[in-house]
TrEMBL record:
Protein's pathway: Cofactor biosynthesis; riboflavin biosynthesis; riboflavin from 2-hydroxy-3-oxobutyl phosphate and 5-amino-6-(D-ribitylamino)uracil: step 2/2
EC class of the enzyme, as a word: transferase
Protein source organism: freshwater metagenome
InterPro entries named among the record's database cross-references: ATP_synth_asu-like_sf, Lumazine-bd, Lumazine-bd_dom, Riboflavin_synthase-like_b-brl
Protein name as it appears in the record: Riboflavin synthase
């Protein structure tokens, strides 16, 4: 489990891709201090397992299913990625509950810098729109954000990012057309499941 508060901006320094998997090496001097082999790391909102750890990097295997369902397939050497270690029981939950299980891949449709924030409009997969509410939580590339407005007709979600968020994450490097990992609030999915089960037994 993660909180969606990015702890480090890592850099992809090696990437070996085969037909059904990939091996990714990420430079992350801060993250590796508290990481052990077998530990979980959120990489752009995708939960990966460290299989090798060096002085300032870690290596993770990425399976074909993960490549198919997330934007990690578009990473190249030199890409910057948002990193977060798994939450511990004694830490403050400053964001929201993020599982690192990407629900779908969206597309950046608009970026409008303003004086105190930057407006981002993201097109989301239509099946995910029912889980998103105004002022609710959403994770974009693993970053916990508050939903500003929703355009259900076009499946657009608007968020406003403050300079602090842009400085500490890779969201400042996005451009129109970039794919982005989306994880909706897991609580909404649990409620839906409970309601479905309830209606079946009535």
């Amino acid at each position: 489990m993660f909180t969606g508060l990015v702890s480090e901006l890592g850099e992809v320094i090696a990437l070996v891709q085969s037909a059904d998997s990939a091996v990714i090496t990420i430079k992350s001097p801060e993250t590796v201090r508290d990481l052990a082999i077998g530990g979980s790391v959120s990489v752009n909102g995708t939960c990966l397992t460290a299989v090798e750890i060096g002085e300032d990097y870690f290596v993770a295997d990425v399976m074909i299913q993960t490549l198919n369902l997330t934007s990690l397939s578009s990473l190249i050497v030199g890409s910057f990625v948002n990193l977060e270690l798994a939450a511990t029981l004694n830490m403050r939950m400053g964001g929201h509950i993020v599982q690192g299980h990407v629900d779908g891949v969206g597309t950046v449709r608009e970026i409008s810098p303003e004086v105190k924030w930057t407006k981002f409009v993201i097109e989301i997969p239509a099946p995910l729109s029912k889980y998103i509410v105004n002022q609710g939580s959403i994770a974009l590339d693993g970053v916990s954000l508050t939903v500003g407005t929703i355009d259900d007709q076009n499946n657009f979600v608007t968020v406003w990012l403050i300079p602090e968020t842009l400085a500490k994450t890779n969201l400042s490097r996005l451009h129109v057309g970039t794919p982005i990992n989306i994880e909706v609030d897991v609580l909404a999915k649990y409620v839906e499941r409970l309601m479905e089960k309830k209606s079946t037994h009535e």
